[in-house]
Amino acid sequence: MDLVSALKVTLRRWKIAATVLVVTTLAAVAAFFTADTVYSAENYVVVVPNSVTDLPNLGEGGQVSQVDQAQRSALVSAGGARLISNLLVTSLNSAERQAQLGVSPEASYQASADPQLPVVTIAASGTDETAVATLLGRVIDGSDGALANLQAQAGIPQSTAYRAPRFAPDPIVTSATPDRNRVVGAILVAGIALAVLLAVALDGPLTRRERARQGAGADDGDGAQDGAQGVDGAREPQPVQPQPVSRPQPTPQPVSRPQPTSRTPGARPTPGLDARTERLPGPARSVNADR
What is the rounded distance in angstroms from the CA atom of residue 111 to the CA atom of residue 98? Predict the structure, then answer.
């Protein structure tokens, strides 16, 4: 189905489309006024042996991917630093450690290890900008102490121990919530698309249902009319109209005309009498002969 046909179907099923648009509009308005602003920030700590004094620094706003090749080689060659960084991540993400650092609904964090470098990323987020910045600084500053406690519990000597200093300056907390106007626009566009799809999908079943109802209504009307006629006929019998009796028509008979008589040559009719011969019962007699 092309776009023009879909629009025609949508206009024909405008009630469905209007219902969907009303619901999506209400959802967009609710999202605009109730969406909480989410703030986020992240920072890094690097796990290196205590013997390493020359630490790389990403600078303000730097990313781990910006570490140059020389620094990357130095970090990778630092013995079991990656293993230690994974242990540090496990310690920081534990419920006990998060409770000690003051995680709340307004601000929380998540630690993760870099797959190639002994670098731990701490990402903090929440609805309170100040709480997010405070929590992130507390986690970064406490990472070195948390790593020292782990190594002390494992009995690692201080000469071969590791430390976890800050890898970058304090980051800037930014808003992670998309622009509300874009969110509202996306919801409305999705609502229009959903309205068209529902109108097209329901058009076929609704059309068949309407046709079935029309057919059933026509059949019911004819049946009711036939039933009413049957009931009236049973209650009031119709009088029988008399049929005219056909009588045989008389057959016309041919009219018999008297045949002319032959005359004797030279005979003269008697005055006052007809010269024709009258046919009487018995032998034929002439009227003139009797006289």
Answer: 11
